[in-house]
Amino acid sequence: VLSQGIADINYAKQRMTAEYLAQEGVEYLRNMRDTFTLYDPQSGQDGWDAFRAKLAPCVAVTCGFDVLVAPLDAGSVFQCPPENCDLYLNNGGYHKSTYGGARSGFRRRIQIEQTSLDEIAIYASVDWAQGSGAKEVRFYESLFNWVQ
Length: 148
Prior knowledge:
Elements: H1 2-39, H2 47-55, E1 63-65, E2 77-79, E3 86-90, E4 93-95, E5 102-116, E6 119-130, E7 133-144
Antiparallel strand pairs: 1-2, 3-4, 3-5, 5-6, 6-7
């Protein structure tokens, strides 16, 4: 009973971390949309269109993002093959491998679907290996063009 309780607690901890990481994926892209809309008048185009253009390389392919890069900067969102979206743990934060740290065991993938001119669907998933198999959490969110 004790060993099963410890295993259940460990699973709950891993799942909670994965859920936070998946939610962070959704929130990062929501922040990116808002940043483009509110703070990017230099782009020469509507903020929503600039946001869509930024995410265009991620439509129907797997992407990741870099939480330490500002949303308007190049490299904040990048394509990564599904097997290479690993997260590394460094100083309490989960980052891509260029910042060093130990492999966390979590892999975060973001996929984008352009559902209409004013809507983008975001699929954020985080997977990890535990016990005898692979575990995964998936989050879905629609982002809309909220400025007319």
